[in-house]
Structures are given as C-alpha cells and as structure tokens.
C-alpha cells in the first residue's frame, strides 16, 4: 500500500526566500506525481504534474522534481511571496489511477 | 460513516449519449468538489459547491458538462453529449473545514 509523507508539516519563511517542500513515497511504481495548492474553502489547484518517465517540471517560480528510485519528490519555490501562503499537497497516482495524498505542508510567507 | 459515495463505479457508453455521475458527500460536510483524472493532465478540479451553491466552475471544460447540487446530500455531474475524450476517472470529494475526503471515483469510458 502506497504511503505518501510530506515534510515539514508547516513552514514559515520571510518574503523573497527560496524554499523546498519535500514529499516521499513508499511504492516507486507510480503512474505520476502531482503537486497541488490548497487554499481554505477552495478546491485543489494543480501546480505541476510529473509523469513517471519524467524527472522534473517547471512552471514560473515553481520547479518539481521526481526521483522514483529514492521515492522522493521536491517542490522548489523561488522568490516566495505572501500570495504563496497555502497548504501544498503531494499526490501520487498508481497504475490503476488510485490516488494517495500526502498530509500537506502549510506554508506561510511573511511580508 | 460510509465516506463519499459515487455511482456508478464504472460506466461505458457510446459517443453522443448522456452520462450522469452521482455523488453523495459525507453527512455534515458543506463543500463538494468534482475532479477529473486523465493520463495527460492528472487530477483537475472541475467545479465545487459551498452549501449547495456552485462557487467556481471555471474548470468545467465545455458547455456539455453541467453539475447540480439540489440538496446537501446529493450532487450530479452530467455530460451531454459525451465524447471519447471525456473518458477519464471522475472523483467527487467533500469537506467540512480543510481536509477533502475523496470518493472511489467513477471510471468513464466513452466509445
């Protein structure tokens, strides 16, 4: 059974800092891995999707990497802004499309 | 609680037919979300409701898609007419505060 762990559970940084969120998974036989942003009361917003054959994806100030052999993914946020404050979820998808969610990292960017 | 209930679990239909997916959220939850999972795009938010009212439907791909929530215990996602590119797994999720609880999904195949 797949388990997804996110570290840290909470993170507070000053504006402008670069930061890394970590995600680890126990079963490397994933179909893809996706990073989401969750704002209170809203649906999940997809940030980056990494297929199992890919090593990284980039979108603006965000970069996500995937290392299946070590069971790890990272989300790098450059030049953080207060608007980046949210909970970030790592979600793995198995071959049968089953989803496994991490517990999330609550990010606060201080102005 | 039985969790979020979705029906049917599998649906195979022909192009042009109407498809109705159903969701029963967890009792007491006031937010309901519809997501679509595809191979290429991962998990995407289609629409979500707060207290039975649609809040954000910007993820609904086309006018062929519609969603309703007539009461706090039931929601439908309808595709009319269906097309082969609609083939995906459709997830319903509900929440009361932060954590979203996902249903098992409906696997839709449009031939």
Report on the structure:
- Chain A is mainly beta and 111 residues long.
- Chain A has strands at residues 4-7, 10-14, 19-25, 32-38, 44-51, 56-59, 62-67, 72-77, 86-93, 99-101, 105-110.
- In chain A, the strands form two sheets. In chain A, strands 2, 4, 5, 9, 10 and 11 form a six-stranded mixed beta sheet that branches. Chain A has a five-stranded antiparallel beta sheet with strand order 1-3-8-7-6, with no helix packed on it.
- The mean pLDDT of chain A is 93.
- With 111 residues, chain B is an all-beta fold.
- Chain B has no helices and eleven strands.
- The radius of gyration of chain B is 13 Å and the shape is globular.
- Classes of the chains: A mainly beta (111), B mainly beta (111).
Index terms:
heterodimer, A: 111 residues, mainly beta, 5-stranded antiparallel β-sheet, 11 strands, 0% helix, B: 111 residues, 7-stranded mixed β-sheet, 4-stranded antiparallel β-sheet, 56% strand, globular
Query: Per the principal axes of the C-alpha atoms, what is the gross shape of chain A?
Result: globular
The N- and C-terminal alpha carbons of chain A lie at a distance of: 41 Å
State the oligomer. Answer: heterodimer
Low-confidence sequence ranges of chain A: none
The largest contact between protein chains, plus residue counts on each side, is: A-B, 19 and 22 residues
Quick one: biggest sheet of chain A? Answer: 6 strands, mixed
Task: Look at the helices and sheets of chain A and give the structural class.
Answer: mainly beta
């Amino acid at each position: 059974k797949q388990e997804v762990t996110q570290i840290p559970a909470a993170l507070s940084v000053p504006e402008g800092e670069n930061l890394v969120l970590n995600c680890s998974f126990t079963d490397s036989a994933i179909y893809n891995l996706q990073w989401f942003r969750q704002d209170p009361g809203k649906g999940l917003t997809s940030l980056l999707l990494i297929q199992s054959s890919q090593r990284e994806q980039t979108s603006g100030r965000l970069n996500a990497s995937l290392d299946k052999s070590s069971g790890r993914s990272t989300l790098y946020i450059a030049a953080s802004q207060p608007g980046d404050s949210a909970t970030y979820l790592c979600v793995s998808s198995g071959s049968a499309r089953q989803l496994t969610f991490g517990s999330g990292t609550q990010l606060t960017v201080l102005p | 609680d039985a969790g979020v209930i979705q029906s049917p679990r599998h649906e195979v239909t022909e192009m042009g037919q109407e498809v109705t997916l159903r969701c029963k959220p967890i009792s007491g939850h006031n937010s309901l979300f519809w997501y679509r999972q595809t191979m290429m795009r991962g998990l995407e938010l289609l629409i979500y409701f707060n207290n039975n009212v649609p809040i954000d439907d910007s993820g609904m791909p086309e006018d062929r898609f519609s969603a309703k929530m007539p009461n706090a215990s039931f929601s439908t996602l309808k595709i009319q007419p269906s097309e082969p590119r609609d083939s995906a797994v459709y997830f319903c999720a509900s929440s009361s505060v932060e954590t979203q609880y996902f249903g098992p999904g409906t696997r839709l195949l449009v031939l």
